[in-house]
Amino acid sequence: RMDLCAEMLSCAFVCEPAVTMCASQITATLFLGGADAAMNPALVSRRNITLIVNATLEYPCPVYHGVECIHVPVSDVPHARLCDHFEDVAQHIHENMTGSTLVHCAAGISRSPALVIAYLMRYKKLTLHQAHEWVVSCRPFVRPNVGFWRQLLHYEKVLCGNNTVKMAATSLGVLPKVKDSQDRTLPSCVNG
């Protein structure tokens, strides 16, 4: 558990060279960003990116020597089935031992954070609540769409047997709500 805490504290926002070329460091070898990060050869080289996960329909996989690119052709709409890719993407990230991984979508706000959260739940054994907090601590402006939240909730239920986040009706529509802070007995992911 201490290793996870150290990794969470090492989150960094990596910009090279312009503010639009930003990727957020989630772990020592995992970065999250928008398409501009993937199209930045200096960032890819400097961060030793050897795997790019491209979660867009609108951007082609960049071609770099020694870099594998996995294309996840999913729209950023609530009915898109991003969950069909959770296991495969998480496994590829986990098995990338030759360098770092960059997971990106168009802006690094919805699709790619959802994939990173799924990875953290699967391989770091975090709850959805913990994984979301981790990613937000590294990249504060992530906002997976409501459909991706529902898919992450289902994935958490499969992995952990319970949910640590619920959907709630608000004035802005149905949004995810982390269980009340008074609930000091948040379930942990004990399966797996």
Automatic annotation (TrEMBL):
Reaction(s) catalysed by this chain's protein: O-phospho-L-threonyl-[protein] + H2O = L-threonyl-[protein] + phosphate; O-phospho-L-seryl-[protein] + H2O = L-seryl-[protein] + phosphate
Domain Tyrosine-protein phosphatase: 22-161
Name of the protein in question: Protein-tyrosine-phosphatase
InterPro entries, A to Z: Atypical_DUSP_subfamB, Dual-sp_phosphatase_cat-dom, Dual_spec_Phospatases, Prot-tyrosine_phosphatase-like, Tyr_Pase_AS, Tyr_Pase_dom, TYR_PHOSPHATASE_DUAL_dom
Example of a GO MF term: MAP kinase tyrosine/serine/threonine phosphatase activity
GO CC term, one of those recorded: cytoplasm
Keywords, alphabetical: Hydrolase, Protein phosphatase
